[in-house]
Design a protein that fits this description.
This protein is of the alpha/beta class. The protein contains 8 helices and 10 strands.
């Protein structure tokens, strides 16, 4: 992996190209070691072969009638889970209401809605080999539910997000996840993204959090 990223000609001014060294998926043996490390920290974890299996497994993990918020996630979008959550009828999709709120007049209601759902489903930007999870955000909207607000947390994590340690996790965010998210934000919202807030989860109360590690590259 290169130590320095520089802007390239076909990207907007100041935009960095993602470092391809952070796109290589970990092998299945490494994923199983990571799952064991997560379980040692109080986080349930399992390894599944592909996005389709992960999609089905998440639905199994969500209780009937639950109030569910799916955080913005390329991983969930890629495997079809974000749309599933909106369209199914077995539980209550928070976004069905939250996405209709007017930010100018109902932002406080939106803030409360994303901070404390019964179940939050999303992803992370890096997971260390010793079982620590790292999430970066521009707004921080998903972080309260991840850290404490939700009763149940489910993360779907692609194999390319495994890194040796926390230092490499932060490097991955800066040199891979951020450039890709920045490009997405510019296309979707007409404005750049930013690494404004970062959450490190080094342990959890047993039974609250569940990581589904997938043996393929998914998301940023």
């Amino acid at each position: 992996m290169s130590d320095i990223q520089t802007p390239v000609a076909d990207l907007p001014d100041g935009v960095l190209a993602p470092d391809p060294g952070f796109a290589r998926p970990a092998d299945p043996a490494t994923l199983h070691r990571v799952a064991a490390a997560l379980r040692a920290r109080g986080i349930e974890a399992e390894v599944l072969p592909d996005g389709a299996a992960a999609r089905a497994r998440v639905h199994e993990l969500i209780p009937d009638g639950a109030h569910v918020y799916n955080a913005t996630s390329r991983t969930l979008e890629t495997i079809g889970l974000a749309q599933d959550i909106l369209e199914q009828e077995r539980y209550d999709a928070a976004r069905a209401v939250l996405d209709t709120l007017d930010p100018a007049t109902q932002f406080a209601e939106f803030r409360r809605g994303v901070a404390s759902p019964q179940v939050v489903v999303g992803s992370v930007h890096a997971v260390t080999e010793d079982g620590q999870l790292v999430i970066a955000s521009a707004s921080g909207s998903q972080l309260p539910a991840y850290a404490f607000g939700a009763s149940q947390v489910i993360w779907v994590v692609g194999a390319q997000k495994v890194v040796p340690d926390l230092a490499t996790a932060f490097a991955r965010i800066q040199r891979y996840s951020y450039p890709l998210e920045d490009a997405r934000a510019r296309a979707a919202y007409g404005m750049p993204s930013a690494i404004n807030k970062q959450l490190v989860i080094s342990g959890e109360m047993p039974g609250r959090a569940h990581v589904v590690l997938v043996e393929e590259a998914l998301g940023f």
